[in-house]
Each structure stands twice: as C-alpha cells, then as structure tokens.
Write a sequence for this structure.
C-alpha cells in the first residue's frame, strides 16, 4: 500500500514538473487549452496523475478553469504583473540582505559570478553578431540564466518557503514574457551591471547596498515588463477593430477603368467655351 501511494505521488510530481516546464519553455503560452489526454500521452502516464497535477496548478494560479473551454494557461493582467513584482521585491530584497550579512563562501560567490558574467557574454555575442536583439532560443537561454542567478541568491538565504513563492511568481511572469521581443545588447549590459553590483555588495558584506541595488533592478525590470504589456495590449486591441469595407479602403487612382462605351460617350460630350466678356 505504501509503495503504491509513493508511486502515485511520484507520477503526480512527474506530471506537475512536466507541465511547469512546458510553461517555462513557452510551449504552453497564456490562453492555451490544456488537454489531459495529450499530456498523459506525452508524459507516459495515465490521466489520473495529470488531472491531479492540473488541479494543483489551478490552485496555485498557473492554470484556470473557464466555462465552455475547460482548463487553460492563465492570462496575467497588468495588475497581476504589478502585484507579482511587489511580492518579488518584498521577498528578494529581504533575502539578499540576509545573504550579505552571512558573507557567502568563495565557492558560492564563484557560482554566482559565473551566472552573472554569462549575461555579459551574451551581450558581447549579440554585438558581434550584428543583430539588434536576441532570437527566441537566445532569449530562452537568457531567461534561464537570469532565473539561475536570482534563485542561487535565494538558496543562500536558506529559506525554502521564500524560494517556492518567488519561483512561482517568476513562473507567472514568464507566462507573459514570451509575448515580448528579445533583449538588445543595452538591456543585457544593464542587467549584468545590476547583478554585478548586487554581487559586489554581497561579497563586501554590505546588506544595505545589496538590498538597494536589487530593489532598483526589480523596479527597472517591472517598468520594462509593464511597458511591454502595454504595447502588447495596444496591438491586441487594434486586432479587434472591425475592418472597413474594401471599397472604402481602395485608393481613387486604383478605381475600375471605364469601359470602351463609357470612354466613347465621354468623348462626344460638347466642350463649353466661355464667352468673351
């Protein structure tokens, strides 16, 4: 009996982790309908653990049940994004202050520095490529590296509950992030600069400076995300506009040509010459 329950729990966690990964990877975007049958086939399990995982993700706010459509990936609103960033600020800023006070080891700082410097290398590669922005695959790699840096800091704070809450908020904001265009080199360099400043303050054992720099970083990120959301919303609203009739959109010079009979008729019209005054 105990073995059976353990196996069921393992399958549930497998299904839960798989669906989360699909959201993180952008394969399940906002508004996408969730199919128990398709997911069970992909994961290689029965529908029961998939149904349980979906129920957990609904309870946690990643999925939602919509009458007539079933379960879909949640569609974050502007207010959702603001609340998520406020939550991140409250928890991450507190955590980084705690990390700075405890002074991580050289090995721990080395892992953080590597994650930090990888973003600088991304900026360098982008500049050398001649392209303006990261492509989809590169943006995925950036998001993973950025998440790694922040989660490593949280892990050093030693609070598993904070890690869980922040990981959930990051996942919810990632649902929206796939609508935006890739970062340019300037954005990558700005993020690297903030990460480096936070890390320098942690290494120096200066909690106030570390907290201040991370707070600024989160504020800048929130502003960029809200601007991206506003652009997406404007574009989305434009798509809802009912198109005008084609006849009204046709330029005058492209009107249908006159028939031969109409041209001949116009040629026979008398020409009026104004009388001399």
């Amino acid at each position: 009996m105990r073995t059976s329950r353990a196996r069921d729990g393992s399958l549930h966690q497998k299904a839960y982790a798989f669906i989360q990964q699909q959201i993180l990877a952008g394969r399940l975007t906002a508004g996408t309908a969730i199919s128990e049958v398709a997911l069970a086939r992909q994961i290689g399990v029965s529908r029961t653990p998939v149904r349980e995982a979906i129920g957990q993700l609904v309870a946690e706010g990643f999925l939602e049940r919509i009458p007539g459509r079933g379960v879909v990936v949640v569609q974050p609103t502007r207010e959702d994004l603001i609340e998520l960033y406020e939550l991140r600020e409250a928890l991450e800023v507190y955590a980084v202050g705690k990390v700075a006070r405890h002074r991580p080891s050289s090995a721990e700082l080395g892992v953080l520095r590597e994650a930090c410097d990888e973003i600088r290398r991304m900026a360098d590669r982008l500049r050398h490529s001649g392209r303006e922005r990261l492509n989809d695959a590169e943006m995925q790699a950036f998001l993973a590296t950025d998440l790694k840096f922040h989660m490593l800091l949280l892990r050093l704070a030693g609070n598993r509950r904070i890690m869980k809450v922040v990981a959930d908020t990051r996942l919810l904001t990632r649902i929206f992030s796939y609508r935006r265009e890739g970062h340019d080199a300037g954005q990558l360099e700005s993020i690297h600069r903030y990460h480096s400043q936070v890390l320098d303050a942690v290494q120096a054992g200066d909690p106030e400076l570390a907290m201040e720099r991370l707070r600024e970083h989160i504020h800048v990120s929130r502003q960029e995300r809200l601007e991206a959301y506003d652009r997406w919303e404007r574009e989305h609203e434009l798509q809802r506009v009912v198109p005008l009739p084609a006849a009204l959109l046709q330029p005058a010079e492209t009107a249908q040509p006159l028939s031969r009979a109409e041209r001949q008729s116009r040629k026979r019209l008398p020409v009026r010459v104004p009388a001399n005054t």
